[in-house]
Amino acid sequence: MALIVVAGLIIAYWSVAIFGPGSEPEQAAILAAPPSSEPADNPPPLADLDDGVSLVRDCAGCPPMVIVPGGSFIMGSRLDQTSAGNAALPVMESEMPAHGVTIPSRFALQRTEVTRGQFALFVQATGYQVVGCTIFDGTSWVLDRARNWRDPGFFQDDDHPVVCVSLQDARAYTEWLSAKAGVRYRLPTESEWEYAARAGNTGAYLWGGDQTAACAYANAADASLLGQFKGRALDLFFACDEGHVFTAPVGKLRANTFALHDMMGNAREITADCWNATYSGAPGDGSARDTGDCGAVASRGGGWFDPPPNMHTARRLKMPSSERRSDQGFRVARDVAPDTSLPIRR
Ligand SMILES: [Ca+2]
Ligand SMILES: [Ca+2]
């Protein structure tokens, strides 16, 4: 384990210059080739539920939500996921110890990331001001005060995920939405997020061991991104092409077995917990951690710029809570009482 951690730190140190502000050594991307034959612990999910999925929508303009059933899962990475001699698949200390979590009851989670169009309704209604964004300038991630969610430096329409938003911005959106809908919206806890992202999958990657399958599920660093940023190391990219350099319209790629789209990739997603460097002392009941470094959050799922190692389902990226980046957005959750009848619409 010591060797794994030391190797991870060495590689992560190199990654800071590339992955930019907020990427700290203990959690930053690991620039290593993706495994070519990582065995899947269970088969890749087969559901592609674009038709017939029952959705909850609390108001006009409210995001479509999927009901996620309660259940138990193992959160984090197991040490034996690296001990099979595959140095390209290291476990980060922040993902350990793997621990059991029980999500006690069903909850609603937005089917996709919050879109630009949804966020625009909030800004239009409130006059909320968001200034500045950290963008990738072709070499490194830099703060550009002229950029913001309306102009992140690449084309987006209303169906793309809103990016260049911070924890505060995301919370402001949920508070506005709660008042509008009469239902309390919130960010998902980190436990809820990983439970929903895995959707029963226990492997390192949602799509199993075939790295070319990543492009069916996740808009991440692929051949399209490589084409845009030529000259970068090939092992930073999946060997497939989903056709998107920057953000993609939400829901365009395949859903997981909970009918959730883009949990992996497109925009990284802010979760509700205060940052903690490991899972030691983490709650097992699905609740958010409200102690630790509350000036930072775990940004989950990786985004359009992220390389294969950052697309591990368990990967946690520490971000300052005030950070706005052009590869980071969020999705919303809400509680669902067991005996509640829901405004289900197709
Ligand atoms: Ca891509
Ligand atoms: Ca995402």
Please describe the topology of this protein.
Layout: H1 2-19, E1 55-56, E2 65-68, E3 71-75, E4 99-103, E5 107-110, H2 116-126, E6 133-136, E7 141-144, H3 167-181, E8 185-186, H4 190-198, H5 214-217, H6 223-228, E9 268-270, E10 296-300, E11 316-320, E12 328-329, E13 333-335, E14 344-345
Parallel strand pairs: 9-12
Antiparallel strand pairs: 1-14, 2-5, 3-4, 5-13, 6-7, 8-13, 9-10, 10-11
What this model shows, in words?
The chain starts with a helix and ends with a strand. The N terminus is likely disordered. It has one domain: paralog of FGE (formylglycine-generating enzyme). With 346 residues, the protein is of the alpha+beta class. The radius of gyration is 19 Å and the shape is globular. The protein has a four-stranded antiparallel β-sheet. The protein has a four-stranded mixed β-sheet with strand order 11-10-9-12, covered by helices on one side. A two-stranded antiparallel sheet has the order 1-14. It binds calcium ion (CA) (2 copies). The site of one calcium ion has 8 residues, from loops. The site of one calcium ion has 8 residues, from helix 6.
Features:
binds calcium ion, alpha+beta, 4-stranded antiparallel β-sheet, 14% strand, paralog of FGE (formylglycine-generating enzyme), 346 residues, 6 helices, 4-stranded mixed β-sheet
Please provide the ordered H/E string of secondary-structure elements: HEEEEEHEEHEHHHEEEEEE
Helix coverage percent: 10-25%
Largest sheet: 4 strands, antiparallel
Level-2 CATH architecture: Alpha-Beta Complex
TL;DR?
This protein is α+β, with helices and mostly antiparallel strands. It contains six helices and 14 strands. The protein is globular and about 55 Å long.
